[in-house]
Amino acid sequence: MTEGGRPIKKRRGILGALALIAIAVGLYWGLVIAPPDAYQGQVQRIMYLHLPSILTAYLSYFLVFIGSGMYLWKREKRDDILAHSAAELGVLFTALTIIEGSIWGRPTWGVWWTWDARLTLTAILLLIYIGYLMLRSLIEDEDRAAAAAAVLGIIGFLDIPLIHMSVYWWRTLHQPPSILQPNKAPWENVHPSMLIALTINFVGFLLLYFYLLSLRYRFGEMRGEIKARRLARGG
Amino acid sequence: MTLLKETYLLLWKDLLLELRRRESLLTMFFFGTLLLFVFHFSFDLAPEKVPEMAPALLWLAFLFTGTLGLAQLFNAERENHCLDALLLSPLDRGALFLAKTAFNLILMLLVEIVVIPLFWILFNLHSWNLLPQIFLVSLLGTVGFCGLGTMMAAVTLRARARELLLPLVLFPLMIPVILATIRCMENILRMGEFGEALPWLRLLLGFDVIFLTLGVLLFDHVIES
Amino acid sequence: MGAWGFVGLAYGIVWGIILLYLISLKRRYNSAQVELDALSSVEATDCDVKK
Question: Is the confidence at residue A105, as pLDDT, over 90?
Answer without folding.
Answer: no
